[in-house]
């Protein structure tokens, strides 16, 4: 009796404590707000979508980001592969026109080689790109923000934006990323949403501390 209990306890702990053998602690889906990303003195975008688009999917350790790991480099997807059209909708290579972007795949190459390889023990190249699109489709950030009165052209505190986003992340902390294109005006450029390595639940994100988190200043949603 005692022995079988011991054995089952051993099995339960094996399963409970090693669900996946990842070399990273969580993975951050970074979504860009195109109006802010593309707002520069000289416009760097050939295309500006009206919705959030993927910047990248970044494997993270608790206190730092993994980058440029050893492994197989990005291999361009064939133009005949339907993933190219799917990625072009969700992971828009805004700096390039569509034809060039589909052939050269510059952003996808950069992101996979810098970040994707670091999660290749769990997700091979194809799985990595499919995962990013699947995670993005878990929520509709634009509608969530709008529901909370956060619409393009309005300003809100860090707390208000964070609270709105937490309604779709099971109350886990997102990472809001700000830039200051105009002196004294912080604006929301990106939102990071974090997931466990197996991508089966949300996880708190480390804060990049690029936004002013005090209640006395407001952040522009351009
Ligand atoms: C914006 O993207 C989300 C998530 O991919 C999608 O559900 C939504 O329909 C899009 N909204 C618009 C206005 O295109």
Automatic annotation (TrEMBL):
It comes from the Eukaryota. GO terms for molecular function: hydrolase activity; ribonuclease T2 activity; RNA binding. GO terms for cellular component: extracellular region. Its main location: secreted. GO terms for biological process: RNA catabolic process. It is found in: Secreted, Extracellular space. The keyword RNA-binding does not apply. Keywords: Disulfide bond, Endonuclease, Glycoprotein, Hydrolase, Lyase, Nuclease, Secreted, Signal. PANTHER family: RIBONUCLEASE S-2, RIBONUCLEASE T2. Belongs to the RNase T2 family. This is S3L-RNase. It comes from Petunia integrifolia subsp. inflata. The gene is S3L-RNase.
